[in-house]
Amino acid sequence: MAEKRIAVLVSGGGTNLQALIDAQGRGELGGGVLAAVLSSRADAYALERAEKAGIPGYVVARKDYPSPQAMTIALVEKLKALSIDLVVLAGFMHILTEEMVEAFPNAILNVHPALIPSFCGKGAYGLHVHEMALSYGVKVTGATVHFVNEEADGGPIVLQKAVEIREGDTPEILQRRVMEEAEWKLLPQAVSLFCQDKLAVEGRHVHILP
Ligand code: GAR
């Protein structure tokens, strides 16, 4: 099996990136290699995490491009130049246009902090997602790792994990619990499965091969 080169796209703190770095350190990325971190912000703490781990970091800032499409095309060019096999969106706060999906069909994973199809789509990102879950009054939320297609948060689901909501939760407390109990486990697991060629996509369904 050829080694897979992974790029992680980030915009903020990068705790999911850290979970991937730690998993790689334990030899748990299924042979995949974290080859690059691309940030939409020059001041993202995720870039410091990358540097500490010896992973090359790059900035592709939205403000440097006239449109989301121009930004997406710049990202695709960079990813192709780096010979990337798998793109991971880990707290990447921009919706990419179709050029990304065309360049990396079934090779982009996103982590979303809710049980899709709840609390997802345009405008559902970061802390807002947890605010939405709390104000709706659901008793269970969670995280989802899915392949990215042309629809926001609409691609085939790879892994999901439920997390309970407790009395007195704030969006911040809930966000932390969802990260600890679900996101930081699911994302490295999904990346590892991809890198071992164990994910087979059939329409909306992702089969996990033995
Ligand atoms: C994570 O909770 C991630 O699931 C979410 O943003 C946070 C980023 O944290 N992503 C989305 O909401 C995408 N729709 P991190 O930078 O510490 O990984």
UniProtKB/TrEMBL annotation:
Residues marked Raises pKa of active site His (site): 153
Gene3D superfamilies the record matches: Formyl transferase, N-terminal domain (3.40.50.170)
Residues annotated to bind N(1)-(5-phospho-beta-D-ribosyl)glycinamide: 14-16
Physiological role: Catalyzes the transfer of a formyl group from 10-formyltetrahydrofolate to 5-phospho-ribosyl-glycinamide (GAR), producing 5-phospho-ribosyl-N-formylglycinamide (FGAR) and tetrahydrofolate.
One annotated GO molecular function: phosphoribosylglycinamide formyltransferase activity
Name the UniProt record assigns to this protein: Phosphoribosylglycinamide formyltransferase
Residue ranges of coiled coil: none
Residues the record lists as binding (6R)-10-formyltetrahydrofolate: 110
Family label: Belongs to the GART family.
Extent of the signal sequence: none
Alphabetical list of InterPro entries matching this protein: Formyl_transf_N (IPR002376), Formyl_transf_N_sf (IPR036477), GART (IPR004607)
CDD domains: FMT_core_GART
Keywords, sorted A to Z: Purine biosynthesis, Transferase
Pathway noted in the entry: Purine metabolism; IMP biosynthesis via de novo pathway; N(2)-formyl-N(1)-(5-phospho-D-ribosyl)glycinamide from N(1)-(5-phospho-D-ribosyl)glycinamide (10-formyl THF route): step 1/1
Catalytic residues, chain numbering: 112 (proton donor)
EC number: 2.1.2.2
Every Formyl transferase N-terminal domain range: 4-191
Catalysed reaction, written as an equation: N(1)-(5-phospho-beta-D-ribosyl)glycinamide + (6R)-10-formyltetrahydrofolate = N(2)-formyl-N(1)-(5-phospho-beta-D-ribosyl)glycinamide + (6S)-5,6,7,8-tetrahydrofolate + H(+)
Domain of life the protein comes from: Bacteria
